[in-house]
Write a structure and sequence with these properties.
Keywords: Apoptosis, Disulfide bond, Glycoprotein, Repeat, Secreted, Signal. This protein is of the alpha+beta class and 280 residues long. It is built from 6 helices and 16 strands. The chain binds 2-acetamido-2-deoxy-beta-D-glucopyranose (3 copies).
């Protein structure tokens, strides 16, 4: 043979794997060609005839060159929280993946975790990995359990307002248009001013009040029985703030009641701060 033909023959041999087969009639050892993916052996080769391959029937496959006599059954079944990502075809078994919002953990699809209040998503969950959370960095907050990233605090100056309460991990910075005290006393804020009333509520609620006293304040104003849920400070603050804001909107004298309550609970320094800041 000319060298080029030999070379080509070798290439073909390399591309087409073979197997050893003992002819059942003659007992002769033969080297047969394997069948390509998607097919199996219909007839093994004989001395004068190459291997005969046949395609896999529906719902069956072979993924590799082979000398199987039967195709494999597509035996993967997608579960309840799974979606099919590879259809069963002649060359591939069916393949499944956890559906949106779930990740796989030992055979099971488990819902992505939410990040607790004060922390947010650092890396969203994938079909293979749970959500990764991190505590909100300075300047960011997340008020509730969520699969959202931490949000940046708002910038009051940018809105032409002043910062009333500095934000933390759990809540946003609160701005106000109320002209807060300190120096410019000639035009003090009118407490009747809705904006100022809200500002005062926000200011008091988000003071660093010990949980016990915060609960006492809440009881006094809500006139609620003593039994309370074992909530976190952040949760109590949110609830208390909502309550006071509603009360304000119903035109109760929240400002006065709040000051009285501060007095009863002996939060004198805070009471002072409020009087000074809001010129009460
Ligand atoms: C089977 O699916 C695979 C992957 O999606 C694809 O590459 C291949 O061409 C398909 N085979 C047939 C016979 O349709
Ligand atoms: C969580 O907080 C975000 C931002 O304040 C809000 O849009 C969302 O509705 C809240 N989700 C729940 C379940 O409270
Ligand atoms: C207080 O008044 C002075 C002079 O009118 C003004 O320049 C300053 O911006 C005011 N400060 C605040 C906090 O309103």
């Amino acid at each position: 043979f000319p060298p080029l033909l030999l070379f080509l023959a070798e290439l073909v041999c390399d591309a087409q794997p073979t197997y050893q087969w003992k002819d059942t009639v003659t007992g002769e050892r033969l080297t047969c060609q394997q069948c390509p993916p998607g097919t199996v052996v219909a007839q093994h080769c004989s001395r004068d005839r190459p291997t005969v391959c046949e395609p896999c029937p529906d719902l069956h496959y072979t993924q590799y060159w082979n000398y199987l006599e039967k195709c494999r059954y597509c035996n993967v079944i997608c579960g309840e929280k799974q979606v099919e990502v590879q259809q069963c075809n002649a060359t591939h078994n069916r393949a499944c993946q956890c559906q949106e919002g779930y990740y796989s953990d030992m055979e099971f699809c488990i819902r992505h975790s939410e990040c607790p209040p004060g922390s947010g998503v650092k890396k969203p969950g994938t079909p293979f990995e749970d959500t990764q959370c991190h505590s909100c960095p300075p300047g960011f907050f997340s008020p509730n359990s969520s699969t959202n990233p931490c949000q940046p605090h708002q910038d009051c100056e940018q809105q032409g307002k002043v910062t009333n309460v500095q934000g933390n991990r759990y809540h946003d910075t609160l701005c106000t248009s109320c002209r807060l005290g300190r120096g410019n006393t000639t035009q003090g804020p009118a407490v009747e001013d809705d904006d100022c009333e809200q500002a005062m509520i926000d200011f008091v609620v988000y003071q660093n009040i010990p949980i016990k006293k915060l609960k006492r304040l809440q009881q006094i104003l809500e006139r609620s029985p003593k039994k309370q849920q074992p909530w976190t400070r952040a949760a109590i603050q949110e609830k208390f703030r909502t309550f006071l804001t509603q009360k304000k909107e119903q035109h109760y004298e929240v400002t006065k009641e709040l000051l009285d309550a501060l007095h009863i609970v002996k939060l004198h320094s805070i009471e002072e701060k409020v009087r000074e800041r809001f010129l009460l």
